[in-house]
Amino acid sequence: MKISSILYSFKQGIKNIHRNRMFSLASIGTIATCLFLFGIFYFILANFQYTVKIEEKSVGVSIFFDENITEEQIEQIGNQIKQREEVATLEYISADEAWEKYKQDTFADEQELIDTFAEDNPLEDSASYVVYLDEVAKQPEFVEFVQGIDGVRKVNNSDKLAQGLSDFNLLLGYVSGAIIILLLAVAIFLINTTITMGISVRKEEISIMKLIGATDYFVRSPFIVEGMLIGLMGAIFPLILLYIIYNQAIMYIGQKFSILSNILHFLNVNHVFATLIPLSLAIGVGIGFIGSMITVRKHLHV
User: Fold this and answer.
1) How would you class 247 by CB atoms within 10 Å of its CB: exposed for 0-12, middle for 13-18, buried for 19 or more?
2) Residue 56 and residue 265: Cα distance in Å, rounded?
3) With the C-alpha atoms ordered 118, 119, 124, 129, is the resulting torsion angle positive or negative?
């Protein structure tokens, strides 16, 4: 397509938007509303998934060894565990460290009771590895592997918590998919209405263009450009507003609800918008393109 034809399509597309400005504004407003809601939902979804991901990595698997096992055998077990792809971190807790932690957690204010043990360590066979996985859903397979290693006496894992976190992540994915599909359907319907009005207004002009030899693509392209421009404008406005809101929201929550800092974890604004900006622009332009293509094929018989 020639540059002059491209420029003509853009010029006519802008004229169409201006000519049907009420419907165009309604379409832009609806797309902006849809993408604003999409952005809010994306904030919630991305930060919830980020929080769940952090919590997943805090769900450890404790591995205890047979009595009288040697340090060399423990090290060999650790090497086998490290070779697993799903292992994020591996921590070794000696019997002395286990006893110190137990004393602090259980007898923190009862020094006399602690003194009765003197130098004895009632947890002398409690050395262990604590393993954190990169995905909690992989825990059952990992536990089965560890239980088959020689020298492993017992494996403690939070299978119910792991399953709960995995199911919650899956539920978030399903809900997000359903909402996105609904928003896209509404936006495409509005684009369809706007382009249909533009075709009705220019019906006679289009007929004349065909009589003097204009190609189907040349006639249709301004309406496709119109739809894409509407989608682009509908994407830009909510992005600006969402950027301001997200910054203010995480600052407000951090100041007013500092007690939740250990529970809620927020993604950096730049990290969020590095994904949200191209995604929103692609959705906006894509909605405009698809909506206009459907409309011209349905109503523009040239």
Assistant:
1) exposed
2) 13
3) positive
Beta bridge partners of 115: none
- Written out in words, the top-level CATH class of the domain with range 60-157 is alpha beta
DSSP string across 17-68: HHHTHHHHHHHHHHHHHHHHHHHHHHHHHHHHHHHHHHHHHT-EEEEEE-TT
Single-letter amino acid code for the residue at 59: V
Nearest alpha-carbon partner for 195 in 169, 226, 161, 164: 226
Sign, Cα dihedral of 118, 120, 121, 122: negative
Q: Look at residue 123 in the predicted model and tell me its pLDDT.
A: 59
Q: For residue 154, what are the β-bridge partners? A: 64
The contacts of residue 133 (CB under 8 Å, 6+ apart) are 56, 57, 59, 61, 86, 87, 88, 139, 142
Q: How far apart are CA 272 and CA 185, in angstroms?
A: 25
End-to-end CA gap in the chain: 19
Q: What is the pLDDT of residues 242-276, one digit of tens each?
A: 999 888 888 877 677 665 556 667 788 888 898 88
Cβ neighbours of residue 244 closer than 8 Å, sequence gap 6 or more = none
Distances (CA, A) of 38 to 30, 49, 142, 163, 182: 12, 16, 37, 28, 10
CA distance 237 to 50: 26
Spatial strand order of the sheet with 87-93 comes to 87-93, 128-133, 60-65, 152-156
Domain boundaries, the chain: 3-55+169-299, 60-157
The pLDDT of 208-224, averaged and rounded, is 69
Euclidean distance between CA atoms 213 and 217, whole angstroms: 12
The DSSP letter of residue 138 is G
